[in-house]
Task: structure prediction
Amino acid sequence: MTYRVYSTSQRDGKTLPTGLMKLNQMTMLTHLDDYTSGSDSDYTKYWIDWFLGTKGNEYFCEVDEEYILDRFNLTGLNTEVQYYSQALDLITDNLDENLDEEMRDIVEKSARHLYGLIHARFIITTHGLTKMLEKFKKCDFGRCPRVLCHNHPLLPVALSDIPYSKSVKLFCCRCEDIYNPKSSRHASIDGAYFGCSFPHMLFQVYPQLVPPKSTDRYVPRIFGFKLHDVAKQHRYQDMIREESHARIMAGIEGLPTTAAQGSSSGQQNNKNKATDGTGAATESGAMADVN
Result:
């Protein structure tokens, strides 16, 4: 089985053959613009090479075949991926070519998902970290958009390890903040394919990559003058007041119904006692006046 991969010049020159979508009786699932060349050859017979060469998959590294073939590394994934066995066969280029086109489409989607989940496990291994380090040094994941970070390279990170919950984000170790990818293709990648731990694991293994904490901060000015400290203090006090109010309201809304009723009953009883006491006092006073 071979997979057709097109270069940018071929797409721009509109020289693409019309038989692309039926090559080897396999639907490629994406539009022509999704294809780009990752090697000198226009053809590749390996599914992983085709996947990595597809436009939008630049964040992924190549997972070692030995890692994929070791079933211990894939423990538990069979319950998370539909048609797991067929998807694994497709990734390792062992899929039965007699499958009908509709079934191939389903297996293709499952293979992409399975490769992403395997990728998340692989990149926190020693060899996986090495491969991602090379991509980090080449700024394959982009640069920090914060001006005071001076174009520091970014790393992909997840906000959740659960598939289909959050898309991938980009982490800057200089400002220690996260950003959305610029490209919509990258922004739609599942964050679970990289995991929450990857960038922090990388800096644990390679601590020399951690830059010194930046002391540069943007200072607001009006006509060249800094804002008065009193204005900052007022803004801070307003923020604290709003947070306190929000906590109080959250506590009131979170009270159990029985507790609220008990509190209401207690208040009513106190009110009745006060009324009784007042009535008794009034009656005593009246008797005194009569006497």
About this structure: The chain is about 45% helix and 5% strand. Strands lie at 3-4, 43-44, 155-157, 169-172, 177-179, 221-222, 225-226. The mean pLDDT is 78.
